[in-house]
Predict the structure of Nuclease SbcCD subunit D.
Amino acid sequence: MRLLHTSDWHLGRSFHRMSLLHAQRDFIDHLVRTVREHDVDAVLVAGDVYDRAVPPLAAVELFDRALHRLAGLGVPTVMISGNHDSPRRLGVGAGLIERAGIHLRTDPAACGTPVVLSDAHGDVAFYGLPYLEPALVREELGARGAGHTAVLEAAMARVRADLAARPAGTRSVVLAHAFVTGGAVSDSERDITVGGVASVPAEVFDGVDYTALGHLHGCQALTERVRYSGSPLAYSFSEADHRKTMWLVDLDGDGAVTAERLDCPVPRPLARLRGRLDDLLADPRLERHEQAWVEATLTDPQRPDEPMARLAARFPHVVSLVLEPDRAPEDPLASYAQRLRGRDDRQIAEDFVAHVRGGRGPDDAERAVLTAALDSVRLAGAETLPEEAR
């Protein structure tokens, strides 16, 4: 059976306030062509269909168009909700849509109920595990712990129980939206940290022939059977070096996997430039970036006059300006930036406690309070942040 694995469409998202709607429409066109040209038997979409829980109307219309075109191909599609999606909104009409061969899996309670497709070698059971927020699904799934690993283990226990009751030789595919240990992250993924731990081991998915992952935006294979497709478009400059692709996966009669990366259309390349303004404007080696979306990090000791306008004269698609002036190591502003670099919100909060108490950091009970407060804010704000703050 031939599968096309994709994820993280983030319909409705912009790039530094530049609309990506046309690029997302081009990707859907490319997806449909790929399904047709490569004789795909099933399309897998591993979450984050939309960029927000309440997507803009244009994104909803594009999604509707994508569903109609996929259904028109007569090729089944299995799709799960991600942490950016509203499961209830995405799942509206799922029962009716299923009649057209579009299988939306947004209900955690149904993770052990597969979509069963068949080929010449027999059945393949597709299990959709939507994004599982531990605080919301722990009790429903009967998880033994409060973190991501515990809820995914509980979901996979349901998958294995259902699979064990099926005829011998039934092959299995799991779609999941999670941060799996070993995956390379970017700045584009929303933090899903719970209790300070966001990642889960790849071993959670042991025993499954193929696991189609979503959430991380870089295409990568954690094992031969556990892979991220990545996002089809770049959504931050941290993805400048990504090769945007989908996985074309062949699952043979014995459950063996072979996979090939298929490139996605690139609307405009990304370039991250760093240096003093005059050097960036004069360097002939940067000519190849003049039509790229540019993030310029200026290292001038003093802020230059009108830096954005001057950059735009050479790089008309500059969309991001970062000021990081060269500073002496003893400069307090330089040392402060270095202390913060690479530290998450929990670590910064704990450092602040230690700072105001003369070096004595939080004890275990205080650390638990801080963690609970940060998790509460993250959960409460997930559906209310404006787009540019995400």
Q: What stands out?
A: The chain has three domains: 2-263, 270-323, 332-389. Residues 382-390 have pLDDT under 50 and may be disordered. Residues 121 and 253 are 5 Å apart (CA to CA). The chain is about 30% helix and 25% strand.
